[in-house]
Amino acid sequence: MIAARWVEKTLEPRFELGTSKGPINARTVWYLMAWHTERPEVIGIGEAALFPGHSKEFPADVKSKLIELCAGTSDWHQRLTTDLVDVPSVRFAVEQCLRDLVVSGTKQLYPSDFTLGQRAIPINGLVWMGDKATMKQRIREQIDKGFTTVKMKIGAIGIDDELALLKAVRNEYDARTITLRVDANGAFDQRSVRDVLHRLADLEVESVEQPIAPGLYEAMAELCADTPLPIALDEDLIGLNHPDNKRDLLDTVRPQHIVIKPSLVGGWAAAQDWIDLAAQRGIGWWITSALESSIGLNAIAQWTATLAIDRPQGLGTGSVYANNIPTPLEVNAGALWYRPEGSWDLRGITAS
Questions:
Q1: 65 a catalytic residue
Q2: Which of 37, 54, 125, 344 matches a 20 to 30 Å C-alpha distance to 319?
């Protein structure tokens, strides 16, 4: 028999995380833990990490579903394809928890040469919003750390200043040396966005994520059909939890890329659905974390390492928290490594 419980944890960023939707000064996640009653020392753990302002879920949805799950554990596998489909972060937590139980709570969810420490996952360096001087410093820090792909958040301090920051990089490094990505989080309106896209293209920016607000499918389709640089859908994927909706989005908008956040789209199986649908249509993709703690990031990273990735992924957010869970994951020279000689310290979860 399986028993289960859950705990809530507030993660504390080392600095204010600036986005076009406002700053993030704290982050709440929920851990689902399960164990076989005859082996209570072996605990499987999964993380539910909805993202306020992006997720279609609310904290009350997560907590009520976790209460249900802990009250009845016999049908978790079946619920992954029924009621949990529309609570994506909890669905992913259940996927993680069940898989961790299978591997005896080791967090070795997808053993590979990545978990053996023999291969790393290439990732982009992320530049959070701040004032212009702070962002300039953060860009320099990412390049100095060895990142050859740098993603910058735009849409908050003014596009002229943001373009000036990108231009300063281009004056020093050409596009073969440093790849630039930008993430607008839907910051631009339909009147101004085309000019922004052309100015970004002039700086040889590789791609722009979600240039206009999600849900504007016809307008986004027009942009994607006549854009001077590749557009990647991000927030537009969130909330489309059923296959027909996913197909309709990709067939209507025809983006150049999609950005897949497993915590927000419903976990590994749902993310694989997006990958398969994109591949059938010649649409590129990459995987991105959504400010999970080490538990969720580990789950995403180990799964991503099993994929045929052909570009840097967005998995470098683990170090932003001052009170994150100690983990074998390590960012070094523009890549995410799993150091098998390292260890997990789960006392902050299991002792709660």
A1: no
A2: 54
